[in-house]
């Protein structure tokens, strides 16, 4: 009889970037972003944002977990880093809420919300679509009288 691995899937969004994170049980901690381990990833901002979450949550709480992060629609570098951070933090909270008790989940959630609210809550600001009569959403072409 085979045992199924316990896993959860979460999503993080920032501007046009969409990131999914699959958190599953494993022997040791591992985190890959698009099949590249996070410690050797070329994007230093993303690595720093991931390390922030690891420090806030505490390494011991995520030692037996494996995280596989995949990006879908890549926007800019900064929005990608924040979307990865959000998906990673939401995966930790969701895993503890699903497979552990509610008290541990609320404790981790409180730590993350105290550190930065946007680790768990999506930023709803989006780019306003362009309209006619100007170069952007609100700007209008300059009027010339002569």
From TrEMBL:
Family annotation (Pfam families): Ribosomal_S9 (PF00380)
InterPro entries named in the record: Ribosomal_Su5_D2-typ_SF, Ribosomal_uS9, Ribsml_uS5_D2-typ_fold_subgr
Any one Gene Ontology BP term: maturation of SSU-rRNA from tricistronic rRNA transcript (SSU-rRNA, 5.8S rRNA, LSU-rRNA)
Keyword ATP-binding: no
Keyword field: Ribonucleoprotein, Ribosomal protein
Recorded superkingdom: Eukaryota
Family: Belongs to the universal ribosomal protein uS9 family.
Record-given protein name: 40S ribosomal protein S16
Gene: RS16
């Amino acid at each position: 009889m085979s045992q199924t691995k316990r896993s959860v899937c979460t999503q993080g969004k920032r501007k046009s970037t969409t990131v999914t994170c699959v958190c599953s049980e494993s022997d040791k901690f591992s985190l890959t972003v698009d099949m590249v381990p996070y410690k050797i990833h070329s994007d230093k901002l993303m690595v720093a944002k991931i390390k922030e979450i690891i420090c806030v949550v505490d390494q011991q709480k995520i030692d037996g977990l494996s995280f596989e992060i995949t990006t879908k629609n890549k926007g800019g570098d900064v929005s990608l880093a924040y979307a990865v951070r959000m998906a990673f933090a939401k995966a930790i909270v969701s895993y503890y809420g699903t497979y552990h008790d509610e008290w541990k989940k609320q404790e981790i959630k409180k730590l993350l919300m105290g550190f930065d609210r946007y680790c768990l809550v999506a930023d709803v600001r989006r780019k306003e679509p362009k309209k006619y009569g100007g170069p952007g959403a609100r700007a209008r072409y300059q009027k010339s009288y002569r």
